[in-house]
Specification:
The chain is built from no helices and 11 strands. With 115 residues, the protein is mostly beta strands. Strands 2, 4, 5, 6, 9, 10 and 11 form a 7-stranded mixed beta sheet that branches. The protein has a 4-stranded antiparallel beta sheet with strand order 1-3-8-7, with no helix packed on it. A hairpin with a 3-residue loop joins strand 5 and strand 6.
């Protein structure tokens, strides 16, 4: 059974940093891409960052220069380092894993940035 366990969310003041982690277990198929999405109240879920293969990364314009996505292939883990956080970054953050067979979502972790 596949499980994605997220950690690292919390409450932080504007300008602060958080590091999200997502560890997957039970995935037996090749992972094509890993990503982080977020969903703020009343808004659609949006992709924040993705990493394809070992190093090709893309970011939403709103987080470029502040967030960094990375992965550990040996652990099937993906991370999101978030710096210079802003109140508008407040959302539930979800990790996402795309394999050749299907896609998986984490349970979500709340990130709240106070002004």
């Amino acid at each position: 059974q596949v499980q994605l366990v997220e950690s690292g969310g919390g409450l932080v003041q504007a300008g602060g940093s958080l590091r999200l982690s997502c560890a997957a277990s039970g995935i037996t198929f090749r992972i094509n891409a890993m990503a982080w999405y977020r969903q703020a109240p009343g808004k659609q879920r949006e992709q924040v960052a993705q990493i394809i293969g070992g190093s090709f990364t893309t970011y939403a314009d709103s987080v470029k220069g502040r967030f960094t996505i990375s992965r550990d292939n040996a652990k099937d883990a993906v991370y999101l380092q978030m710096n210079s956080l802003k109140p508008e970054d407040t959302a539930v953050y979800y990790c996402y894993i795309n394999t050749i067979l299907r896609q998986y979502w984490g349970q979500g972790t709340q990130v709240t940035v106070s002004a």
